Amino acid sequence: MKKIILASSSPRRKELLELHKIDFIIDFQTIDEVLDENLALPLRLEKLAYQKALPISSKYPKDIVIGADTMVCLNKQMLGKPKNRQEAFNMLNMLSNRTQTVYSAVAIIDNGKVATFCDDTKVTFKKLTEQEINDYLDTDEWRGKAGAYAIQGIGKCLVAKVEGDIETVIGLPVKIIERYLNFY
Fold first, then answer.
1. What is the pLDDT of residues 18-32, one digit of tens each?
2. Which residue segments constitute the domains of the chain, with CATH numbers given?
3. Residue 1: band (very low, low, confident or very high) from pLDDT cuts 50, 70, 90
4. Catalytic residue among 32, 36, 69, 119, which?
5. CB-CB neighbours of 90 under 10 Å
6. Distance (Å, rounded) from C-alpha 60 to C-alpha 111?
7. For the residues of the chain, what is the DSSP string, one character each?
8. Per-residue pLDDT tens for 44-62?
9. What is the pLDDT of residues 111-136, one digit of tens each?
């Protein structure tokens, strides 16, 4: 039986796999996350997910390694993880009363074979006041989150509507991974 290895330090991705009762272990290596500007955004993210999975696949060559990356985009502007509170405030203020697209890319390396995909979900924010943004930032939940919020946590109070798979917004479209794993 092949092992499934999640090549990610994200507690949210871990929780999602556990929620779906997938038996896995975690092993990851920190890489420089550099997006290839020559590719369309979904392909950039797929390449980054692959780069996260690749070093782990060499440690587990006969097993299934899953790498992932998530990005929030407003129009054509990418909103990664904010570096500080001011940057987080600016992101949330920009997202207020607007619809963004959240992309989650996955790379699965299985015994040398590579499968990649990218899923997207539309998220519409409520119209936020400066006080609402600051109250949310006071929770510190925004730290380390693309777009400066966590939809599965307190951040859901910022959201008016979700069109698509909420797990894509959280960071791992598990239903698509399950379809891949069910081929066994």
1. 999 999 999 999 888
2. 4-181 (3.90.950.10)
3. confident
4. 69
5. 15
6. 8
7. ---EEE----HHHHHHHHHTT---EE----------TTS-HHHHHHHHHHHHHHHHHHHSTTSEEEEEEEEEEETTEEE---SSHHHHHHHHHHHTTSEEEEEEEEEEEETTEEEEEEEEEEEEEPPPPHHHHHHHHHTTTTTT-GGG--TTTGGGGGEEEEES-HHHHHT--HHHHHHHHTT-
8. 999 999 999 999 999 999 9
9. 889 999 999 999 999 999 999 999 99
120 is catalytic: no
Determine the Cα–Cα distance for residues 74 and 112; give it in Å rounded to an integer: 35
Angle formed by the axes of helices 85-95 and 130-138, to 10°? 130
Considering the entire predicted model, what is its pTM? 0.90
Grade residue 183 by pLDDT with cuts at 50, 70 and 90.
low
